[in-house]
TrEMBL record:
This is 4Fe-4S ferredoxin iron-sulfur binding domain protein. The keyword rRNA-binding does not apply. Keywords: Iron, Iron-sulfur, Metal-binding. Coiled coil: none annotated. It comes from Desulfosudis oleivorans (strain DSM 6200 / JCM 39069 / Hxd3) (Desulfococcus oleovorans). InterPro entries: 4Fe4S_Fe-S-bd, 4Fe4S_Fe_S_CS. PROSITE patterns: 4FE4S_FER_1, 4FE4S_FER_2. Residues 298-327, 335-364 form the 4Fe-4S ferredoxin-type domain. It comes from the Bacteria. One of its GO terms (molecular function) is iron-sulfur cluster binding. Pfam families: Fer4_7.
Amino acid sequence: MPKAADPYKKLNNILNMFDLKVPKSRKFTKLLKLLYTPEEAELLGHFGTPYMHMEPIGTTVRITGRNKEDVEALFENMVKKGTLFFQKGDNGERLYSLPPFIPGIYEFYTMSENDPFETKKDILKLLDDYFFETFVPEAFNSSNYPWFRVLPAEHPVKRTISIEKSVDARTRILPFEIASEYISSAQYIAVGDCACRDHAAMQDGKPRCDKPKDVCLVFESVAEYWVEKGIGRRITHEEAVNVLQRSAEAGLVHCTTNNRVFGERMSGMICNCCPCCCFILQGVLRTRGQQGIAKSNFQPVIKTEECNLCMACVDKCPVNALYHHKPHKDDGSDNFIALNESECLGCGVCVMACDNEAIQLVKVRDTVPEIDVLHMGDRHNKERRH
């Protein structure tokens, strides 16, 4: 009699149908075994691409031959743990999907009330180890088309618009480049605590930084999932813009998916990231993997004559792209703040930090991302290097 297929191997294979691949390792198999019981893993073995393959309970019952009440109980347990996603169909019926590792299981499990604290802490430690040893090098170095992109802080961009008189293609600011306009089409918005800062605090036993936590924005079906699970609350567009402003003032970086408008299924997110906790900026810093995130179309220009060398911009830059060029000349004329352009993400944190208004955010390129998440995923996969 042939040996039954390993349900965890099948689960790993399903997760690898998503754009951000999950490299196989003993550590990840151990992680899956902690997150999913053998019965749960077996039940999900016929599922397809995370977030794309959606099915009602009736379909799972028919395919697996399991009792409906048993399937409902197993699904509900996974939803509670944050290891199963759902959205409402046209008739209001829940449609279930396996979430990807990121963005999905990593955040949903961290944010959910599930395992006892010590158990959860151990799982998050294993998740952390796998994430930085294996997942980050893959996610930030595998494709020429990044999955994430940076949105610049809005106030510096709007200041640029008022300063620039020319309206040629180089200086025209497009809706996808401004966070408040990027989210203007969203019908359902939710805010929740940053999973990365919660994750870090659980690992350290105390907050790793003093940055605000209630600043993670999600949209449409993911937002509805958060609200129904109780890990987020619905907010208005105006409240979302206030979240973005509060985040920018705190020196956080707006990070989103590398597309122009929200898709129908995986509808969208804006993470407001700090470099000490958040996986996107940690990925950049640990791998020097700027190719893993699309820079904004903006770059800071320092007005040396107005700079008082207070070092606020150097201290606040999340990726250490600014530095103090110490003078070589007797007259001190080469004593200035310099920018390492290859490291700069164009986030505008330095502009927000400068009380002297000695830094301006200038549009330096016209990169246009793919229209939506589906096209973004296709291009990410077509341009994979491995």
